[in-house]
Design a protein that fits this description.
The complex is a heterodimer of chains A (223) and B (347). Chain A is 78% helix and 0% strand. Chain A has 223 residues and is mainly alpha-helical. Chain A has a single domain, classed as MetI-like fold (Orthogonal Bundle). The mean pLDDT of chain A is 91. Chain B is globular, with a radius of gyration of 22 Å. With 347 residues, chain B is an alpha+beta fold. In chain B, the strands form 4 sheets. Chain B has a 6-stranded mixed beta sheet, with helices on both faces. Chain B has 2 domains: 214 residues, 3-Layer(aba) Sandwich (Rossmann fold), CATH 3.40.50.300; 123 residues, OB fold (Dihydrolipoamide Acetyltransferase, E2P). Classes of the chains: A mainly alpha (223), B alpha+beta (347). Chains A and B meet through α6 and α7 of A and β7 of B.
């Protein structure tokens, strides 16, 4: 009987983090490539904007999302013409986690692209490949380990997200309550033993993710 | 005809070229840092020139004034850079397929059948050069750019690779720009050479003439022929003109094609009766021309259908009364002839 809530917390946590990573993947890979390979106007402004969620308090990000999607906000149901049914659902948790993990994943993705020797790309062009094919067949495969590490890092950050999620998604058991939210609730309610159990689960999860990501990076450096 | 007009500022000087090249192999010779690699990267489209026009036959690759600038994938340039750049995540076959369909003629020329499934990171220097050259040829280029493809190879591999480049030149008939700082390689391979110094062409013309005017040691006699028999540590190199030259036995089977280099300072000029000598080669010749170059003289002499050059002092010219038309004997040791390219005869 007592196992059911822990399992659902774990399920929600993994589900939210995974969905956030899938959402972040194309965006951070695209932004990372742009920052690594292209010179364009207002580049440093874009760089700053991309890094902003890294330093803003997550609660501030949560509040901004709340205002954006909440009643009267620029992306509210009244303005959009349909109800995205976002706030206080697991989708809001996904969005909050995605916003927070995006800068981390983008920074690592950029480093991954920067580590690819551009002369390989030039050579592929000289062999007759158009730029899009060079990206898919040369750049992506050569950066793959670094990119996988970048996404894992984003996933790890999404796993632990608390501040923004609490504000836009609340802490609804079985729906939006992730590990970090459950731990917070346990502490508030004095359920010390239970909090400790969830902390142990979190630690194990984070440990595994970081371990895999470090191994990817180490192998990438050798390849 | 290839037109190269390029202008590009570099760190210490500007590359300024205005050239017209005939088909065949053009050597780009010069000290390191003279702009040779930059030239190739501009032609390949890896860099954008500040101004210029590049044309191969009727095809214009770059014309900055008319805002023509073909993307690298449309230039049909086969570029083999010094670091060859085999794509590391693909094996040999995949690297070749990236350029185009595998052609039997190319695979055979470069003896690649046994290498196709190999990881490119496991290849030796010579094998990497072979794969890179084959890959460049498979992309159906109209111009080959070779950036010091022989650097870093040991002597034996170098001899084979140079012979391979010679056969590429014969079989594929694609114009080449061959960057090198080795005068001998340029002489063996190229029909024309340009000397680049600090971004400018300081000399252009046939290798023999241009390199003879370069600092001592740049020019050598190039002897091309076939090995026709060996005995007692020496072998005979039969030149196309029918003359036999005795060389140290290179260990090649009779019939093998070989190219030897012989330095001008290793060729003695004699007149009159000769004593018994250790020099294995004594060739009756007629002086064609004398050219003075900072106190020394290049004596050009005709031996049958072959011309050989000797570098002697002004004093020697005076004492031997050398002048065009004078009959002389050219003497040189079998061991002075260095093997620079060899292709074993098919068994």
């Amino acid at each position: 009987m007592g196992e059911q809530p822990e399992l659902s917390v774990l399920r929600v946590t993994l589900q939210v983090a995974l969905a956030a990573t899938l959402l972040v993947a194309p965006l951070s890979i695209g932004a990372g490539w742009l920052l690594a390979r292209r010179r364009f106007p207002l580049r440093s402004l874009v760089e700053t904007l991309v890094a902003l969620p890294l330093v803003l308090p997550p609660t501030a990000i949560g509040y901004l999302l709340l205002r954006l999607f909440g009643r009267g906000g620029p992306l509210s149901a009244d303005v959009l013409g349909f109800d995205p049914d976002l706030l206080f659902t697991w989708k809001a948790a996904v969005l909050a986690s995605a916003v927070v993990s995006f800068p981390l994943a983008t920074r690592s993705a950029r480093a991954a692209f920067e580590s690819v020797e551009p002369r390989y790309e030039w050579m592929a062009r000289s062999l007759g490949m158009p730029p899009a094919r060079v990206f898919l067949r040369v750049t992506l495969p050569l950066a793959r380990r670094g990119l996988a590490a970048a996404l894992l890092l984003g996933f790890a950050r999404a796993l632990g997200e608390f501040g923004a999620t609490a504000i836009v998604a609340g802490s609804i058991p079985g729906r939006t309550q992730t590990l970090s939210l459950a731990i917070f609730e346990d502490i508030q309610l004095g359920r010390e033993q239970h909090a400790l159990l969830l902390v142990a689960v979190s630690t194990l999860l984070a440990f595994g993710v970081i371990l895999v990501s470090e191994r990817l990076l180490a192998r990438g450096a050798r390849a | 005809m290839i037109e190269l007009r390029l202008s590009q500022p570099l760190a210490a000087f500007a590359l300024e070229l205005d050239l017209r090249l005939e088909a065949g192999c053009t050597g780009v010779f010069g000290p390191s840092g003279s702009g040779k690699t930059t030239l190739l990267e501009l032609v390949a489209g890896w860099r954008r020139p500040r101004a210029g026009r590049v044309r191969i036959g009727e095809r214009v690759l770059i014309d900055r004034e008319r805002r023509v600038e073909l993307a690298p994938e449309h230039r049909r340039i086969g570029y083999v850079p010094q670091d060859v750049l085999l794509l590391p995540h693909w094996n040999v076959r995949e690297n070749l397929l990236a350029a185009g369909a595998l052609e039997a003629r190319v695979l055979e020329t470069f003896e690649l059948d046994a290498l196709l499934e190999r990881d490119v990171r496991s290849l030796s220097g010579g094998e990497r050069a072979r794969v890179a050259l084959a890959r460049a040829l498979l992309s159906q280029p109209e111009l080959l750019l070779l950036d010091e493809p022989l650097t870093g190879l040991d002597r034996q591999r170098r001899q084979r690779a140079l012979a391979l480049l010679l056969s590429v030149k014969e079989r594929f008939a694609i114009p080449m720009l061959f960057v090198s700082h080795d005068a001998t390689d340029v002489q063996v391979l190229c029909d024309e050479v340009l000397v680049l110094e600090r971004g400018r062409v300081v000399a252009q013309g046939p290798p023999a003439r241009v390199l003879a005017a370069q600092p001592a040691g740049s020019y050598e006699n190039i002897l091309r022929g076939r090995i026709s028999g060996a005995s007692e540590g020496s072998a005979t190199l039969e030149l196309a003109s029918g003359i036999g030259i005795e060389v140290s036995d290179p260990g090649l089977a009779p019939g093998s094609a070989a190219v030897f280099a012989l330095r001008g300072e290793d060729v003695l000029v004699a007149r009159g009766a000769l004593p018994r000598l250790s020099a294995r080669n004594r060739l009756e010749a007629v002086v064609i021309s004398l050219r003075e170059d900072s106190g020394e003289v290049w004596v050009q002499a005709q031996v049958g259908g072959t011309q050989l050059s000797s570098r002697v002092t002004l004093g020697a010219v005076r004492e031997l009364e050398l002048a065009p038309g004078v009959a002389v004997t050219l003497l040189f040791k079998a061991t002075s002839c260095r093997l620079v390219a060899a292709r074993a005869a098919a068994s």
